[in-house]
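[worker-b] picked up task from shared queue
[worker-b] task type: protein-ligand structure
[worker-b] ligand name resolved to calcium ion; SMILES cross-checked against name lookup, match
[worker-b] sequence length check passed
[worker-b] input payload:
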Amino acid sequence: MSRNERAATAGDRTRGRLAVRAVVLATVAIVCVILPQSASAVVATGGNGRFVGAIDWVVWGTNNQTLDLSGPITRMSTSTYGGQTLVVSCTISNFARAGGGTPTLRAYRSGNWGGDALDELYNIGGEDGANTLVNGLSAFAQQVSFDFACNATLDGNPYPLNGLVFADGEQSTGNEFVSGEIADSATWRLIDRNRDCANDSRVLRTVAGGTDTLRLDNPASTLCPTGPAGVAFADGATSGRITVNGGGVSAVALGAVLTFDHGDAPASYGDAVHAVQFSFTGGVPPVGASALFGGNTLADTTQPSLHLGPSVDPEAGTATAGADGDDASPTGAFGPGDDETDDPPATITVAAGGSYTLPGVACTGTGSVAGWIDFDGDGVFGGDERSQTAACTTGSVALTWSVPADLAPQPTSYLRLRFARNSNAAQIAAPSGLALSGEVEDHVLAIALDPNPVPLVDPRLAGLVALLLAMIGGGVYSVRRLRSSGQPA
Ligand SMILES: [Ca+2]
Ligand SMILES: [Ca+2]
Ligand SMILES: [Ca+2]
Ligand SMILES: [Ca+2]
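[worker-b] inference finished, payload out:
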């Protein structure tokens, strides 16, 4: 081939590759437009926020990705709890730019700007440049408004979301702000905030025309090297309208609070999961202008109505040999880290065919309690290792087991306790799986063999035995009488 032919062939190959690439890109683009993007739930794994691990942040794209605002954008996050699939779906739509013109929104990674505070509170991989959590929606040098609406389903059935998280994802200064407008039947609560100097920013709350609008801004530009910035919760609202005003860049972040309690016995015992829905109290900013730090307090959580022991706390689930992963979780906004303080005896002494009763299992709320003990030490809670179902009416219950014949004394075994609303009692028939209320607690214990077991006698048999003994006793008495009277026995 001549140099020219080679060049022509190489050019054809390049054009061919480009054509194929264009078709692939067009196909990907079409798929992205047609299908709502679905991905695993994204929660922060680091940061000093009060709800790290509990907020499912909506990820709108890769960092700085420009979003196609020609139609609604839906993002779905999927997580699995006890074999059931929870899908949180959020849609933004009806985009408008103040003053006319084409609105532009980009996915934003808090930390792109060194003054951002959200990445100090909630991040993956670290703060600032190390953060890989892209949970913001940013506008640059324009004011963009849009509707948002979120819902959740569990295995296809509606799952209640109590509200949505709304956060300042960048650092607001001058005319910059993020605002959220919800129905005034719902309640704005401040749940988190961050700054690294004394300077304060502003919270502006406006209630008018059936709506309640919260705006986070900093018109005096009293900035810290980081922040100040706030995080709020739209309590009772899962839809509304957001406005992001960027002088330079400004960003908002949205998320849902998902809280579940998991067992912490070794994984072989199965994943016992309970949905624990906390409510918030307090933290409502005053109507009008107030200082984010100086004029406000943060909301507190309220314990769910059902829990074992003093409290329940949510966590991702930490199976450990000591069944203490939950016990060791740090104290936070959901209460004490160790919510499993009512330990069973270190050693229980039992005999095969006997019974064992664990008294004083503390429970708050009205519901059903059941327990499992791995009596045979096979690493599984068998059907014959379950106690009865005890009715809790707030206080405590006693759980009783019939000890299986294949009892194996052992230094390390496990107790699992599950508690659920009576309407969810069927969900604690098994030692694993999801229950929509209550709590699971796992504890370690040793099983010792009782050398002198009290024989278990069926009450009906006991009556028969007493009768037989009476008859035998009567016979001996008659023989003695006959002997003492000199008559032949
Ligand atoms: Ca827990
Ligand atoms: Ca535990
Ligand atoms: Ca507890
Ligand atoms: Ca077992």
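[worker-b] attaching auto-annotations
[worker-b] Helices lie at 3-34, 118-121, 459-484.
[worker-b] releasing lock
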